[in-house]
């Protein structure tokens, strides 16, 4: 991993604004990292409290919302200042910015919110979830490096690890059943394996990873732990459970509007700063830059993420419980018969539920497609669409959509049934209204002759 040339640029403090000349004589002391990042002890029992304790940016003219810094490039008052910035001597920690691919004040403010949410020293927000994942893996791993990963992953991540990184970067991956801790331990090669990578809740099978134990196993062998927490923001805090880095597709629950593509890397300040290094930083040189206008919009949505997640989770639990009573094969970590139900309870943040995703296994792709057709076009329960975290319910047959990058054998090993319908449960309407629509579709599905044989 490349060493950083910069100071703690990922988390600029409350530096005095420069007026008239570049004040670089040291009298504009910033707030210490500890006082800026730390949260009162009780707050970390609840990510919403941590968010409320994070630094709040006001607008340029006193607005309650921060201003959008839309500039691509930034001016300096003295020629010497630019040389010092490029030498890594001055940076955003003292209100010196070079270029928005490097650091942008609005994007940095969103990064502070993401770091507070996940309980990490720093965070940097990117143009997509995949750019966050690929950048952090390429920063930690050099050519010839090795990754151990869960065999059940989002299809795009699986393709990145299986095809792209070996071809383009000579980085190889061993896939394991993340529930088999002995297999994980055996797969990690001390001195070679750089990363243990898994999802806190797997896409789409909803397997819950034992983050504390997996982190202990990886750290014992000198590997870093990178966890994709896209399915469980607020519900789980992997960094507090032992993980080194937490990545997100902010496009999903955190955004909530199905209108933005974005990602985040949350982790140690040393790592985040190294990723922005002018000469060796993956984020700086690959350029997955977040637009500051997008960062502003997202910063306005994060404060009510906790409220949204609670409702997503409550609806998912209610539907899963009722479907199970009807004899339908439903997968949801909130059900007591889920294999990792007790594990999730032991790790989860209190009062946020068990996640907003549930799966219904219709066994065959044909039956899965019939169900989704009825749910959308007959009962108006939700939409056939990929992604998740929207206020409407979104559903897809994972094997032929978001996991289609995996071949049949890989899907079977990952536990993905051909008829597995992934549902991101929305919160629009009343619970009973939406349940009535779901029941209507299920009743219609059983009618003889509908869509041919049943």
From TrEMBL:
N6-(pyridoxal phosphate)lysine modified-residue sites? 252
Q: Which SUPFAM superfamilies does the UniProt record give?
A: PLP-dependent transferases
- Keyword Transit peptide listed: no
Gene Ontology terms describing biological process: methionine metabolic process; transsulfuration
Xref: CDD domains:
CGS_like
According to the UniProt entry, the coiled-coil residues are none
List the Gene3D superfamilies hit by this protein, alphabetically. Aspartate Aminotransferase, domain 1, Type I PLP-dependent aspartate aminotransferase-like (Major domain)
Required cofactors, per record?
pyridoxal 5'-phosphate
- Entry keyword set: Pyridoxal phosphate
One Gene Ontology term, aspect cellular component: cytoplasm
Residue ranges of region Disordered? 1-25
Q: Which domain of life is it from?
A: Eukaryota
Molecular function (Gene Ontology), one example = pyridoxal phosphate binding
Q: Say which family it is in.
A: Belongs to the trans-sulfuration enzymes family.
* Protein name, as recorded: Methionine gamma-lyase-like
Which species is this UniProt entry from?
Punica granatum (Pomegranate)
